[in-house]
Amino acid sequence: MRKPELAAAIAARTNLSKSKAAEVLNALTDEIADAVSRNETVSLIGFGTFSQRNRSARTGKNPKTGAAIKIPASKTVGFKAGKLLKDAVNK
After folding, report:
1. Binning pLDDT at 50, 70 and 90, where does residue 55 land?
2. What is the spatial distance between Cα 61 and Cα 78, in angstroms, rounded to a whole number?
3. What's the pLDDT band for 54 if we cut at 50, 70, 90?
4. How buried is 7 (Cβ within 10 angstroms: 0-12 exposed, 13-18 middle, 19+ buried)?
5. What is the value of pTM for the model shown?
6. How many Cβ atoms from other residues are within 10 Å of residue 36's Cβ?
7. Of 15, 34, 88, 91, which shows the fewest CB atoms inside 10 Å?
8. Burial of 59 (C-beta count, 10 Å sphere; 0-12/13-18/19+)
């Protein structure tokens, strides 16, 4: 399911217009991204938790040449599924 399809499903469940549902969905994803970029954790009880994680620098290989390359340290987003989401997936 892509973002427009998700917005349409939200609109059908909430009696909102598709454009309003898309606006709400965009606001939600923007707020999650802003909070995680500030190194805050976003917990949606039952669904899951978004958090910022650090990846340390490491050595990798160029798959084309086989030469060793240095991969710099970076930040990434982590997601840990909540109990209700895990239960829904494992029905």
Report:
1. very high
2. 24
3. very high
4. buried
5. 0.81
6. 20
7. 91
8. exposed
Q: Return the amino acid letter for 2.
A: R
Paired tokens of 48: 């899951």
Q: Which of 48, 54, 47, 13 is nearest to 5 (CA)?
A: 13
Cα–Cα dist 42/4, whole Å = 23
Structure tokens given for 16: 């909102």
What pLDDT was estimated at residue 34? 97
Residue length of the chain:
91
As beta bridge partners, residue 87 has none
